[in-house]
Amino acid sequence: MAEAPDHCTSATRMESQRNSAPRELLVVRLGTVEYRAALELQEAVRARRQADELPDVLLLVEHPPVYTQGRRSKPEDLPFRPEWYAKQGIDVVPVRRGGQLTYHGPGQLVGYPIMRIDDVIAYLRTMEEALIAALGDEGLVARNRPEDGIEYTGVWVEDRKIASIGVHVAHHVTTHGFAVNVDNDMRPFEWAIACGLDGVRMTSVTDERGETQLTRPPGTEPLTLEREPSPGLAQLADHVVARFAAAFDRTPVEAAADALGLSASSAR
Fold it and tell me: Residue 187 phi/psi, 5° resolution?
């Protein structure tokens, strides 16, 4: 989900952005990171990117269960009492990105590109195209829906939403990013109004293959709060890195967290 200012999409401006930005994309895979810690890390990396102390960066993470509320979120997006969500083990965090409410949890690939950009709409569309291509590498036919309005930002398989996007831009440098459902438990999407679209059907890579052991457990089972990363998630992450770098005309460079030049507490 995303909320964008009134910028016209411009291939010329995007090309100018590509030509002027550093060509390297630093890719840092952090594993599972608590959501608030990831917010702090993004802000620290953005400050270094704004100062041109780092090239563009792509952080890849998983999160423990959490609902994030964008600037256009409404109280009715979470129809149950706060203590009910807390009992399920789901955190709730307001954030500055555009869009409304979404969910993150184990088994979902979350990417935070921290990049210098000029054109927000072109950036969103290019990100969608990269994710569509990565899902194509997984054998899925996905699409975006720019003609349906900003509420439909993200990636879809037919009329089912598989990836959400929400960004925040400060001094031309981005934070927040995308979340692709791989083999995460999908029940938390049913306990909320995701992306402000009441009745939207969410899907995942494994759902689309008919593999629902992890994504559609019995309602009586408690929500899994943490688990080991799956091979499927790691495979999709590789596809996303390659397609994202190609879409933005960058060379991906895999790096450890200490390459960000931050303290250990900031980096994890």
Answer: -60, -35
